[in-house]
Amino acid sequence: MRVCVVGSGAREHALADALARTSEVVCTPGNPGIAAVAECVPGPPEAVDADLYVIGPEAPLVDGLADRLRAAGRSVFGPGADGARLEGSKAWMKEVLVAAGVPTARHATFGPGDLPAALRFLDSFPGPWVVKTDGLAAGKGVLVAADVAVAAADVRAKLDGSAFGEAGRRVVIEEGLSGPELSVLALCDGRRAVALPAARDFKRVGDGDTGPNTGGMGAHSPVPGGDDAGGAP
Asked: Of 84, 34, 77, 82, nearest to 58 (Cα)?
């Protein structure tokens, strides 16, 4: 089988390395590290001939790449634009959680003209405060602040477009919840869902979780106590 992995980051490197154990792998655009385990080619994924397309980054999924490939009769691993919207819009994701009755942190969404209301919302509950860009920001759009003045400054910078451009001109503000993270992903085909093993991600730069959030400083799986029997620690 010939598999095309779409992307150029560490996630795509891991995917290419695993898939190369059983398949011929080509990656677009790839990177020098991925080139050690797979052929890297320039150009759009639609121009690559493959039996299966595995899309890693969020941006092309939100942009509908999986839908375009499927419309052309290709087999694709990755959600269409409708499913990818859960990642592409944090405000919409919160709406889905509320509608489905899924517990989530106290939150509210604000746009460019809502700065006074956003600042009042920050003052309505004790910290820490979490400020998120609604749109994609390459994993850099989340601020966790222990100081309300820092949170307020971040809200201003995002809403006026100076921090993240259009991706940040709508923000979700929510209460900070402390505790260990447990991430569980499920593979779905529209009728069935199969859970993958739990993983734990670490976001903040620096020892002791100091510094800002990033796209991810590392992760591990399995997670002690995070199986079906033990639950999250």
From this structure: 84
